[in-house]
Structure formats: C-alpha cells, structure tokens
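To whoever is on call:

I kicked off a structure prediction for a single chain this morning and the downstream step that reads the tokens threw a length-mismatch warning. I double-checked the sequence; it's 452 residues and nothing unusual in it as far as I can see. Pasting both halves so you can look.
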Amino acid sequence: MISVNFNVHRKLKFFIFIIIILILSTTVVMASILKSGLQSDAYTVLKKGSSINKINVKGQIESDNTAEVYTTSSNIIKEIKVKIGDEVKSGDILALLDTKDLQKEIEQMEASLKTTQATNKSKLDNAQKAYDNAEKLSREGENSQIAAAEGAVNAAKLDLDDKKNTYEDNKVLFQCGAISEQDLNKSEISFKNAQDTYSESSVALNNIKDKVNLDLNTAKSNYEQAKFLYEDKSQQIAIERKKQQFSDCTVLAPADGIISSVNGVEGNPASGSLLQIQSTDNIVAIMEVKEADIDKVKNGQKVKVKTDSTGDKIIQGEIIKIEDIAKEEDNDMLKLKDDSNDEEAKFEVKIKIKDLNHKLKIGMKATADIILEEKNNVYKVPYESIFKDKNDNNCIYIAEKKNKGYLIKHVSVAKGTESDSYVEVTGKHIKDGVIVLNNPLDHEVGETIKIK
C-alpha cells in the first residue's frame, strides 16, 4: 500500500514538472516575441480595398450547343471515319453505311419508270387523238350521221305536213259527198304513217346526238385519265426518296465542333444517335454547387473561371442557368437510405464565357469563383481577428502607438461582407493605418508590445 502511494506521488511530481517546463517555455517564447516585436503575419494594417464574398466551385468546360447526329437509314454501318476528340467541320464525312441493296433498288425503279412513262405517253397520244375526233364530230355540220338524220327528219316533216293537208281537205270533200269514205280512210292512214315516220326519224336523230355526246364524254374522260397517269410523279418521288436514303448513307457533320461521343458500331445497323458533336462556337462552364450554397447563387452573377491550362489567367463569365433539380446521382433514393452514402446534393450551374479570347477547350477541368457580393472602399480583417466579448459584441484588438511600443486596446466592430478568409468591418476606430492583431487570444488589453 505504501509502495503504491509512493509511485502515484512520483508520477504527480513528474506531471507538475512538465507543466512548469511548458509554461516557462511559452513565457520565454512570448518574451522573445515581445522583445523582437510581432512579425508582419501577426497583424493587419487597415487600408481601404475591395471585399468579395464568393463561392469556389469546380466543374468542366462544355459546349452549350450539342448536335446529335442521326440517319433515317437502318442500313449496316460500313465505316466510322471519326473518333472521340476529333475536330470536324460542317459537311465533313463522319460515317458510311452500306448502299449495295439501295443501289440495285434505285436501278430497278428507274428502269420501271422509263417503261411506264413510254406506255403512258403512248396511251395519252391515242386518247388525245380520240378526244380531238370526238370533239370535232360533236360540232355542228361536222358529223355526217347527224346531217343525214337531220335530212331524214326534215323530209319526214314535209311529208307529214303534206299528208296532214290532204287528210284535212279530204274530210271536207267527204262531207260534201265529193269522195268516198274509203278515199278518206286512205288519206287518214297515210297521215298517221307520216306521223310515225317523223317520230321515228326524230328519235333516230336524238339517239345519234346522244351517242355523239356520250362518245365525246368518254373520250374526254379517257384523255384526262391518260393525262393523269402520264403526269403522275409517284414513281419519280419514290425514286427520289430512295436516292435521299442513299445520300443519307453518307453521314455528314451538321456543324463545326468536337466529336464528344460515338454510339454507332461498324457492322451493326444504324439506329438512334450515331454520334454527338459539341460546337466550339458557344463554350460554357458547367459547375457543381453544393446544396448549402445553391440559394446564394443567382442568374447574372459574375464568375471568375480558371483552368490548369490557362494558369493564373482569370476568364470572366456570368451565370445564365441554375438547374432546379440536383444531379441524378444525388437523387438516388437507395443511396439516401444508406447513411454511409448520404452525401450533400450538388446542383449544376451554367456559366457563359464572356471573354472571346478564352482559349478554353471542351472537356477541360475548371474552377470558378462565383461572386455573391462585391464592395469597394471597405476595410477587412482576417476571420480569426474577430471575437465575442462578454456582451456578445463583435470585437477586435488594435495596437496604438505609445512611446516606444504599442498599447493593446479593445474596440467593438460591426461585420459586413464575408469571404473565405476575410470579414468587412466598420466602427468608430476603423480607419486607414490602424493595426489589428490577427490572434487576439495571444494578448491582453493594456499589454504593451513591439511591432517589427
């Protein structure tokens, strides 16, 4: 029991000794600092400048104009002439599809069209002649059958008039007793026969005229049908469509740009998007902003973009679009159920590059400062120089010149714009030349220090 207490006592003495050594070392160091004076990184001399509140984000350079290259043909892909990263110009050949079957179809269709056109031309010529003849026969005085029939009608009409007059005269004579009833009956029969002849000749004339009109209408209909078939372009249109399919088998670049993806595979049928081209004429930066910062970001805010290839050169930009939905991988519900994968969501922000001589390339990794707020002619101090006093006021320590040293004083300040490392401050004692201590916890009010 005595041995145990003795060991504890020895350990306690050792710890006390270590603490004393540390205190003495700190005192010696502080004394050395006070004697030599504070280094320049231990204080800030106030002067007016700019205060920028910004968010630093990462992303990459992309095109704001992406063209998907499709073809209407489902033919086999014979050759793809480009690869990812190739720069192409509008009209450059990107891929070739197999055209052997198409070429045969076009040749067969053109031969069929030639035969059909010759046949239809012959039919049209014959129909034209028949129509012209029928039209001629329908004109007055041109049809001999009509002329003969009209002559027969006229003769029958004269005979009818004569037989009618004779019959009327004989009726008077019979009443006077000048002729017999038999003679009267004969004249009546002759009159009725003349009526029948006239009626029959009139019907015959109308039948001939009807037939001429029917022949004319039939000839006209046949001509119009033959003309329609001759002028029909459906076969020609079908050939043109086949030729367009043939042309589509040579896949051309629709615009200048960089090949960003190749989906088609040689030997497989062409379907969907074969390739993707990103235009180099309209470059944007796509940046990822954390959900904690997304509410601070607004359209129109200035952005300063940098890449490894452009070094320290700042490329000016402007926010033009903020996605309303987080990136897809951040919305995976399976991940959200697993706490180990529950990472902060990120939102894509599109930045228009305003510097026309940017020399940026699609796919470059980039960083950017989104300027949330910027003020000029303000004072700013390091974050760590501000602390709270017992009344919860924001305060700083300043060093005022006194004799050969500097006297530490406590002053209240109001905070303004904040950036990653600095805070804008205002207050009664804030002016040019004031010395602010960066590490106030290392000092006490009323302490006199030296400054290098």
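Update from on-call: the warning came from a stale cache, not from the record. Cleared it. Sanity check on the structure: The longest strand covers residues 365-382.
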